[in-house]
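so the lab meeting is tmrw and i was supposed to have these ready like two days ago... anyway. pasting both below. for each one the top line is the aa sequence and the line under it is the structure tokens. i havent really looked at them closely yet so no promises
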Amino acid sequence: MLVAVTVQRSGDVVPPYYASISGPRPRRRRRVFLGAVAGVLLLGLVPAVRHGARSLVGADGPDGPRLTVATWNTCGVAAWGCGEYGGGEQKAKALRSLAQDHGARVVLVQEACRGDLDRARAGLGAAWQLAFEPYRQVDAAGAETPVDCGAGRGEAGFGILAAVPLTDVAPVESPQPAPGLHRGILCATAVPAAPAAPPLRVCVAHLSLPPADRSDRPAELRDDQLAALLAAAGAAGSVFGGDFNSSPPGPRNKDAWIWPAGYFDAVRECDQESAGQRSGFAATHENGLKLDYLFTALPRHGCSQVDTGFSDHRAELLTVAAAL
């Protein structure tokens, strides 16, 4: 999610730093949306957040341009248990803060309301662009119904906010439950302002929840969704991530098999301290699980988390060697 900062030196990454955006903190409660079964089955697979690690942004890293990308599940849909995490103005303010206070030039969002995103984009300025893909609730007959955020905030979905033009914007085909909630993957190319800088491929994903019956592998969708995401993003010149509704592939994770080859290897995660690390990542959700990820093959300069106070997910921020 989104998303800090680590410095990569001789293959090692310093643990992330955690910050908060100032503002009222609503009363927390575990969201109904994740589902009691999924929460119980995933609980305990990831350690609690490591507080107090110091930030090393800009310290001792190689010279050159740097780019910060964030991912954040905004928890914007009141009907999904998010009513006590702030309204549209708070979400928009938090999104603007990720850019203005924490330096994000690209923000990947999930469970976001179109109206909140439009408000955030307007506040950031005319240079900022938005690519948005709505969720669809599909019934047994195949009829699709959009998910409304309520309170006049528009449809719910996932998307990409960027400080530069976005081209080649397209959803990525991936298996979805039928019937059920269709989430998905959206990719785009961010066009740098500097003519000599190469374009950056960015993809946001919101994966399906795990099946209630863990023994029913054919019912699992996340393995194929993760494979589709990696294929669409590519290993070179890209940053991609989002809310994967999945724990890292550690030895205690019953679903470790869903992660295709290449993850944590050909591409590294924001909070990945070494090439062999597969567990021990900092939690991004208030239930103590890491559910939000940012991957890249670009050199990493830093990783951080921001608790906005207006979601049950922290934002994760990854700084890479790139320019926009």
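ok protien two:
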Amino acid sequence: MKYYAGLDGSLKEISICIVDDDGKIVEQGSAPCDAEGVRGWFTARSLAPERIAHESGPLSIWLQRGLTRLTLPATCIDARKAHKSLSARPNKSDAADAEGLAQLARTGWFTPVHIRSEEADLLRSLIGARERLIRLRKELEGHIRGILKTFGIRMTGVTHTRQRQAFRDQ
């Protein structure tokens, strides 16, 4: 028999629901909010789902990477599209959402989300931090230039590296 799992995560815990080929609930519960906790939950019940579905969100990239590292067949699905099918359900709770996600995993009616590699995220973070530091430096230089004008000190504009050094020297 094939089993399908749905995970609905929050900051503290993950609601888990397992359904079978016919869509009947086999097991429901919750686990700590990390990949090891999810794997431990499956192992304690001797369940090996064919597919695990969870919605995209703030922690989904971290969770997906952890589940993949543990060789669990997890798929991160588009939260906006999943919301449309989950909002049609009468009961809105974490457990009910986990059941809905398990049903989506069973039927295949979902759109998977691409998860960037950890290296890509590290590079993106460095580029973003550099861009922010450059913007802060320019804002600070402009602020200093404005303050100095009140004392009659007029600084020239900065467009090249040599002029930037001249600004610092002044």
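from a quick look at the 2nd one: DSSP finds six helices and five strands in the chain. Residues 3-107 form a domain with the Nucleotidyltransferase; domain 5 fold (CATH 3.30.420.40). will dig more after coffe
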